[in-house]
Design goal:
mainly beta; five-stranded antiparallel sheet; 3 helices; 26 strands
Length: 427
Amino acid sequence: YSNLIRQESKGFLLTSATGYLPKERADRCQDEYTDISRSWETLLNAYVAFKDLSEPQVDATPEPAVAYAESFSGTLQEGDSLYDTNEFYDQYDIDLLAGQEVVLELTSYDFDTYLLVRTADGAVFWKDDFTENSGNGSVAKLDLPVPTSGTWTVEVSSYGAGDTGSYILGINTQDDVYQSIVDDVIKTEDTAFTETGEFYHVYDYDFSKGEHIVIMLTSTEFDTFLYAMTPSGEYFVNDDHENQIAVSRIEFDAPEDGTYEVYVTTHDVGEVGSYEMVMGRTAAPEPVVETEASTTEPNTTEANTTEASTTETNYDIKDMTTSKARSTNLGVLEAGDETLDTGEYVDFYSIDLEQGQTVKFTLISADFNTYLAVMDPVGTFFENDELAEDSSKSQISFNAADAGTWLVFVTTDSVGQGGNYMLSIKK
């Protein structure tokens, strides 16, 4: 919990404290921990069985989130196109190539998101919330294969009729994921599983040990279910990929040589309809030669002790949407913007707060690794690099210690990054 007293920081964004504790409390934090730890050990040691952890521990730190290659920011508003059910929507066209896999993620802090995709083949897929609303906005996500080249239409909408507000649509494509495509139909004349009764098709593929296999099944007419069986009887199974009932996806490294059976079936008994199954394979990777890691620790001391030079800086403060409860602001970090002393592009916003007022700032981008900082009227900074280990989001919340004008810094984790972003402020 060292982030409570000190955080990774841009060089110019620091005064006397960098974490969430006041400086006076932070200064004695280590001594407090020692005292509390000793007290607990005295109480608990008689009841604890200690084990020698001599085996090397695996670093379970997840990889940082990948920024989206393309993004669109926009606003649902009066005058937009309207569905028959009275939801506004915006439309985007994207050109895709056969064999790609495409990921689309729609995020908004203003409305319950709804994402609809019309493929070049005429198939229609849709998705409501991918995650529950837990302070990270409403997110709808679709992960789909591209069986044939062509133009797809993406429609950004809301779940509720008449809802409006700002959003970001992120799009990522990965080339040459799939090489084999099957287009077929499950019918009532097909073979059914003896015990459970669902109709199915089975395909045989010869895989070599270590090959990386990706198989995705989609249908607009039934709830998909996909599994593969190895020659020795091991199973890889998926029902709903990323909570998409019309999409199933399995990915694995082939554990042995031989013929694998891939089963295409339905979730419920009696379901029938057309489907597409795509399969991709890549050769086993070459063995990685491990090298001894450097033991030199990165020098973060200088960045964590730099005095802020705010009194001599004239900030180009952007206009902010005002609201009693919430404001949502769309922006772009790009060449020509102001830069920090450390070289990153930065946009500035200001907000007036009352003493004791609760406020939460959330920054999200599909284009860059976000970095968010807020400076109080006396020059103390609050900072956050990533929210819950997601480098595309940063969030800061607190009760304002002082009344007055607070300055908000929207910037990036690294020099040279830029793109669309959305800053949400909830009071």
